[in-house]
Design goal:
Structural class: alpha/beta
Helix content: 25-40%
Shape: globular
Radius of gyration: 24 Å
Largest sheet: 10 strands, parallel
Strand order of the largest sheet: 1-2-3-4-5-6-7-8-9-10
Order of helices and strands: HHHEHEHEHHEHEHEHEHEHEHHE
Number of strands: 10
Strand content: 15-25%
Length: about 375
């Protein structure tokens, strides 16, 4: 590069650097809160003026994956445990009340289900809550073992670890605004007791979780648990289960705005199929589940794994009847799965998904949904599987 151009480039670089350095701390913090914690830490190293900024963040998101070795394809217990240990160390720095007087409005954690490390987190979080350092907590706890490789015993152990965490640190759950659980089978009313303690819970996501027998037709006990919910997602509902039981959850959550379900329809997980096929949810009658305007706040319904079958259409119509202010209906087909394609069970094959694949088929589904005079001005979106 010619000397003149090199000097000009350095001048531009220096000028840009000066402009950034002149930004107020609150502006830089607003930028840092939109990037990963790794980027935040790297940025703070660039300048002595910025070194204190990470400890002033009001919204912090930490996930164990950020502490895993790069290019790790298969994570084992040891690697996850080491990552969790590093995460706990960093979290201790953020929550140490003596380092700064700033308040963390929201702490979001995605952490593995490792009991000892979760207890370390529980102690830190409860201490921060008691000191006034932390106001709200968002918690996502995936399991170390893959759901497709888990049997019923694994899921029961996962649930028991979660219940032990809850019983050891109930105050932490009182400050939860978002809870995302995976791959767990709860005993009878354990899930209900847990949710009843989540007084500020607004977002609940259950991924392939068996909630025991806590969902009963009367549903009165659910109202206390779900009174503040704004978003509810149920992922991994077995394909042969009736869906009308989920209406009970909607009716117990009068403030819910977004409701999503995902149908579990895989032959590549024979353990799961054998486990679910032994269970029954029973027959549900939508007419007995409440009035026609029970979900006044519901704005969006999302259904993944949709099929053009009577059970799914009945479910959608039942929700629409109860949600006069519904604005959006998202219907998505089953995602392509190599494992399922390799099996001979054609019902679960992507080619036999029974999802509308062109505009004419979409129009037929729309007419079926709007049958019997159901003419709410709902925007219906079809998202074809990739």
């Amino acid at each position: 590069m010619p000397l003149k151009l090199l000097m000009e480039a350095k001048d531009v670089q220096s000028h840009d650097g000066d402009r950034i350095s002149r930004l107020r701390d609150d502006i830089i913090l607003a930028i840092l809160e939109k990037v990963s914690i790794c980027t935040v830490i790297r940025t703070s190293i660039l300048s002595t003026r910025w070194r204190h900024l990470p400890l002033l963040l009001s919204h912090i998101y930490l996930e164990a994956e950020d502490f895993m070795p790069q290019n790790t394809e298969v994570a084992d217990f040891r690697l996850i445990d080491e990552a969790m240990s590093a995460l706990v160390g960093l979290l201790c720095s953020f929550l140490d009340a003596s380092t700064t007087e700033s308040t963390i409005r929201t702490l979001s954690l995605r952490v593995g289900l490792i009991a000892d490390r979760l207890c370390d987190i529980g102690k830190l979080v409860c201490s921060a809550i008691d000191s006034g350092k932390l106001k709200n907590l968002e918690l996502e706890i995936p399991t170390v073992k893959d759901p497709l490789e888990s049997d019923d015993k694994d899921r029961q152990e996962h649930a028991q670890s979660l219940i032990c965490l809850f019983e050891s640190y109930p105050r932490m759950f009182c400050y939860l605004t978002k809870l995302d659980l995976y791959n767990a089978s709860f005993r009878e009313t354990d899930m209900l007791h847990l949710l009843n303690s989540c007084e500020q819970l607004q977002n609940l996501i259950l991924n392939e979780c068996d909630t025991g027998i806590w969902i009963e037709p009367e549903g009165e006990e659910l109202r206390n648990s779900f009174r503040a919910l704004r978003k509810l997602f149920l992922h991994g509902i077995y394909v042969e289960f009736d869906l009308l039981w989920t209406l009970l959850l909607l009716e117990a959550a009068p403030s819910i705005q977004i409701f999503g379900i995902q149908i579990w329809d895989h032959t590549c997980g024979e353990n799961n199929r054998a486990l679910y096929s032994e269970r029954t949810i029973g027959a549900w009658d939508a007419k007995k589940l409440g009035g026609s305007t029970a979900c006044l706040q519901l704005k969006a319904l999302e259904m993944r794994g949709f099929k053009q079958v009577k059970e799914h259409l009945d479910f959608i119509r039942a929700v629409m009847e109860r949600a006069p202010n519904l604005e959006t209906l998202l219907l998505e087909g089953k995602e392509y799965c190599k494992g399922c394609e390799a099996t001979d069970y054609s019902v679960c094959s992507s080619l036999m998904s029974m999802f509308p694949m062109n505009k004419d088929e979409e129009d037929i589904v729309v007419k079926q949904i709007r049958a019997d005079g159901l003419n709410h001005p709902v925007r219906i979106i079809f998202r074809r599987p990739l």
